[in-house]
Amino acid sequence: MQGRHDSSRGNRTIDQSLRSDGPARKKHQDMDWYHGLLPRADINALLEHDGDFLVRTSHIAGHDTAKTVLSVKWKGKCHHWQLQEKEDGSIVIEERKFDSVLDMVTTLRLKRLPVSINCPALLLNPINKQDWELRHDQIVLGKMLGEGAFGGVYKAVFYNKGEKRMVAVKVNKGNEKISTRNMIEDVCKEARIMRQYQHPNVVCFYGVCVEKVRSSLSYHYLLCLFQEPIMLVMELASQGALDSYLKNEKNNVSLRDKLKYSFDASKGLEYLHQRGCIHRDVAARNFLMHKNVVKITDFGLSKQLSDLAHKYKLKDVQAKLPIRWLAPEVIVTATYTFKSDVYSFGILLWEIFMDGATPYPGMILAEVKQKVRVGYRMEAPDRMPTFVRNIMLNMCWPQNPEDRGNMNEIRCAMEGVLDGKFGVANNRSVYYKSL
């Protein structure tokens, strides 16, 4: 099971650190059970059984400093102790002093001493880094592929287990309006969502880099000094973003190509919905092309719902949102459901058959918001086949979310075309069967 390691591996790790004739292990950052800047939400998921433990670094809310934290599961609950670090490298935990973090872990583990008087947790099973927790030295950045408010996306080489592969790396830069802690949590939340999914029409996730070298330094100084930005490592799409591809290759993209792109996108979104994920940003710019296959990406706004939840209410009403792709109920109530993604999928269909054009041409955002909320819809593109027009208008764009189809129904309708249940000729469709 991911996140679980047998105790024998943990013992070997600790024993090696004690051997005088073994490799020199002077820093806890070198140990497999050190997880860098991984946030608490991920840590709590890794600690599964009593005695599971690890060490990490955490940004202190309201301060531009970081602390080393010992995290342990005991009596079914995760406990987190901030360590007091002295200038000489020694640390103090509840008035007990140790030469270093490594000395503390070694002493408490081998002597089976409780971490605290109030909570007699024991360090029994070190939880090592997961495969998706990458080191910065595994990534060599190359050409920038794109840039946004978050930072840039780069083509890069990823070295892993003796092999190398070309990848895309989303590199988050500092932002005065966003705290370092929140930036790390946002990136790791996106990674947490992405690593659950494996599907041909969803961009593949490889890992996240959230290392930290010396926790005594301030975050901004550290990131500047060691050149270690937060990185999200994922599959490299050879043909780039779908909207750009449609614009640049519009003379080479056939009607059947566009039908395939629409079908690919429907399969990817259906897969996410089946697993309880509302994407919240379905748009051509957030689909990538790789070997003529369309893959959904950018989970920065996505929400993973619990088994009992069916909607998500936006907490920050001032948040910057993709207005041209929003369903009317989102504009009015700031409430997202799977059916709001379906509405956005209709906008995506419009984009595909308009060669990547921006929705609601000639309209400013305020006008889009005002008109959509009272029922306005764009006209179907002239080049859109009749059956796709019916899907867009009748299954994606009804004002009432309950009157819309779901992604399974939409995918089945698309599949019917590609399976030959519909004929396509002369850039128009012959409608053989009722949807």
TrEMBL record:
In the Enzyme Commission scheme, what number(s) does this protein have?
2.7.10.2
Q: Which SMART domains match?
A: SH2, TyrKc
All copies of domain Protein kinase, residue ranges:
139-418
On whether Nucleotide-binding is a keyword of this UniProt record, the answer is: yes
Catalytic reactions on record: L-tyrosyl-[protein] + ATP = O-phospho-L-tyrosyl-[protein] + ADP + H(+)
**Which InterPro entries does the UniProt entry name for this protein?**
Fes/Fps/Fer_SH2, Kinase-like_dom_sf, Non-receptor_tyrosine_kinases, Prot_kinase_dom, Protein_kinase_ATP_BS, Ser-Thr/Tyr_kinase_cat_dom, SH2, SH2_dom_sf
Does the record's keyword annotation contain Translocase?
A: no
Q: Where is the composition biased (Polar residues)?
A: 10-19
Question: Which portions of the sequence form the region Disordered?
Answer: 1-27
Per UniProt, the enzyme's principal EC class comes to transferase
Q: Which GO molecular function terms does the record list? A: ATP binding; non-membrane spanning protein tyrosine kinase activity
Tell me the domain of life: Eukaryota
Q: Note one Pfam family from the annotation.
A: SH2
**Key words, A-Z:** ATP-binding, Kinase, Nucleotide-binding, SH2 domain, Transferase, Tyrosine-protein kinase
The SH2 domain covers which part of the protein? 33-127
Q: Which family does it belong to?
A: Belongs to the protein kinase superfamily. Tyr protein kinase family.
Q: Report the protein name in the record.
A: Tyrosine-protein kinase
What is the protein's species of origin? Caenorhabditis brenneri (Nematode worm)
